[in-house]
Amino acid sequence: MVVSPERLDEAHPLLEGLDVERAAAPAAIVIFGASGDLTSRKLMPALQALMAREQLAPGTSIVGVGRSDLGHDGFRDRMRQAVEQAGGGDVDERAWAELQGGLRYVSGDYDDDATYQALDEVVADLDRHRGTAGNRLHYLSTPPGVFAAVVRRLGDVGLHRPAPGGDFARVVIEKPFGRDLDSAQALDRSLHEVLDEDQLYRIDHYLGKETVQNVLALRFANSIFEPVWNRGYVDSVQITVAESEGVGHRAGFYEDAGALRDIVQNHLLQVLALTVMEPPVSMSPKGIRDEKVKALGAVDILHPGEVAREVVRAQYRRGWVGGTEVPGYHEEKGVAPDSRTETYLAMRLRIDNWRWAGVPFYLRTGKCLPRRVTEVALRFSGVPHLPFAPTQATQLGPNALVLRIQPDEGITLRFGAKIPGQTFDVRSVSMDFSYGAAFAEEPPEAYERLLYDALMGDPTLFIRTDEVQQAWRIVQPLLDAWSSESAPLAGYDAGTWGPEEADRLLEGDGRRWRRP
Amino acid sequence: MPVPVITLGTWRAQDTTMAPVLAALDRLRQCDRRGAVRTSFVTLLAVGGEGVEVDEVFDTVHRLGPLQPTRVVVIRVLGGETHRLDARVGVHLQSRGSQYLSIDDVALEVAGPVTSHLDSLVEPLTLPDLPVVVWCRERLPPARSRLIDLADHLVIDTVAAGGRSRLPAVGRLHQRTPVVDFAWLRLLPVRRRLAARFARPQLRPLLEGRPRVAVRGPEVERALMAGWLRARLPEATLTEVDDLEHLSVHVDGGDHHIEVEADPDPSTEALLAEALLHLRPDSAFTDALEAAAESP
């Protein structure tokens, strides 16, 4: 996301004055879990797009590792299908020709030494014949339970380090990073036995979205917002990550995770951190991540006794979403009839620092909500004195600044305007700005950005170990409180914005949820 | 006369879902930089039965001038029990001198069980944080309709919805969600004119005494006008006289006789513009409704 000054210094003189991005150095990209859905839907299309834009160097190779017995040809066929599907049938044949020559597949179990010996041979062969130059990027698209085992075995065969002549060996892992604070710390200890922290790239794909990055641009590239971005002007903040779909075929995963682990611990708290962090000294990876850690560290940790008052969790019931009748959570395939997994969560947080003391942050996420939307809404305090008759301002609401992260990325500013005519009636209007309409260029998909950054060695958009642990520190009291069977669990009709209990959470403060 | 609009793009699908509709709206808006920034104040939803001419509704709304809603959704509810959701999306620009007004038109044709859950179609289409105005063109929404709770304001026309006998139902609706009634808005010019006549101090005693007031006109407008006058002039002796042609109000007392007549009915777009202009509590309408419901 952020072009650090160092990167420009590294650019060779022929690039000067040319509006081109540097290509990542050739590398062997090893994908564990290569027969899985993520590889076909996201990773391979992203690599193809990067190659099409010449952001990958010729020779870059992809090694799939998986339990399925696909073989090189089978893997190549599957990746071709993935690329075709992502492009709607259109394939950049030049890019594909470059990539397909370096596609390899290693079949085997993740806990079998033979898998890694075979992988080592394949990667060494690529170094010799494709010019991958000893560079490795291992992408663990596997169940998190095998992260530590895979990394340990990579260490056993020496694939955790670049081969002689190479510059880097990095490991990308996907959330969840642990199930709670203890397991997250245990996972980190295991990973750090083999890898240095700067080799670890923890992905939260939300951070790869252009508009998440635009939160930083909006805040720190403009002089008009930052002065009011504090308790002096902001009345409250609402962060919403709403999904319109139910658990679908992910019931197995979701039953174990719930909304807290699936969304809150990572996406929601990352967005919160970007919203509340202090301006970094520079846009360097360290500068930004240090401030995010400080921001998360300032979140007031709930006592277990406060959880019932400050947090609402719920499950969806049968209802209608977007004109379609959807089953209740308990009716979903793979969900236990007596499941108490939350599909919705709303919570009130406070940030104990100079900037935000006293400002409530209302966070909510849920499945089967009326629309898919992710946004940050800052509601501003009212004017000290309203010089209008009460009847002239009945249609006037508080000022609000809304950062829409998805799906229609943009910014909305709500302010009061006079209604044309003889009378002096004022009403709220919304001025909205659409990134998509303003910039003709399609922003890269999140995975394109993140894969490119991982290859380039830019960890800005990846989560550092202390960020992970701060996030678990915030959610751990909720996990503790909910471990009891008697912990409250509300219900809501699919297609509504959540349970009444969530409304009451705000009504007690004299506020209400906005309609995103 | 239709207002010229520049169409940035259109999309349509049969037997679809809301996800592609929303995707089409985003995609079409991104076709042109002139749609990048826009200002909105309301989401307008028009609901009707098979008789609704969708393009006619869009044309009406496109003629609203500065009060043109940025997003207009028209739902045509069809008969039949088989599920159906056909959609048409248009993204347009309306030129206003050097400025452009961006407009999204969404037309949905629905049938089957979803017709009892129209709110689930509308909710994803609402513009964030702004009032939702539901325009029920032909009849009052059923009391069980969740659209009533979704709406911040309901726009109806009691005349089209069945006449005077529907006023008690309008009153119940109004208690739940603020109602703007075209029948009431048609009275606005004559109410203004009548009020203006009493601006002269010499005529004030007439109102403070026990004037005789006669209201002539078609039943709904007459009932609302009489209701308003009963609420505002509780000492007056009020009579209603049926007149299918046009509305007039006669006030007599002492040596004075005041008479005001209504203008010809304004156009639908003028009424809709007036409705959108005044999305605020109207205590005069509330009082008129209550008094009209109580009168024989």
Q: How would you name the CATH homologous superfamily of the largest domain in chain A? A: Dihydrodipicolinate Reductase, domain 2
Distance between the termini of chain A: 27 Å
Globally, the shape of chain B reads elongated
Task: Compute the number of helices of chain A.
Answer: 15
- Name the pair of protein chains with the most residues at their interface, and give those residue counts: A-B, 43 and 41 residues
Total number of strands of chain A: 17
- Oligomeric state of shown chains: heterodimer
- How large is the radius of gyration of chain A? 24 Å
The CATH class assignment of the largest domain in chain A is Alpha Beta
Q: What amount of the residues of chain A lies in strands?
A: 15-25%
Rg of chain B, rounded, reads 22 Å
Structural description of this entry:
The complex is a heterodimer of chains A (516) and B (296). By secondary structure, chain A is α/β, with parallel strands linked by helices. Chain A has 2 domains: 5-174, 3-Layer(aba) Sandwich (Rossmann fold), CATH 3.40.50; 209-441 and 462-507, Dihydrodipicolinate Reductase, domain 2 (2-Layer Sandwich). Chain A is 36% helix and 20% strand. The longest helix of chain A has 26 residues, at 251-276. Chain A is globular, with a radius of gyration of 24 Å. Chain B has 2 domains: 6-151, no CATH class; 188-294, Glutaredoxin (3-Layer(aba) Sandwich), CATH 3.40.30. In chain B, helix 5 runs antiparallel to helix 11 and helix 9 (219-232) packs across helix 11. Chain B is of the alpha/beta class and 296 residues long. Classes of the chains: A alpha/beta (516), B alpha/beta (296). The interface between A and B is large, with 43 and 41 residues. Strand 16 (426-434) of chain A pairs antiparallel with strand 2 (37-40) of chain B.
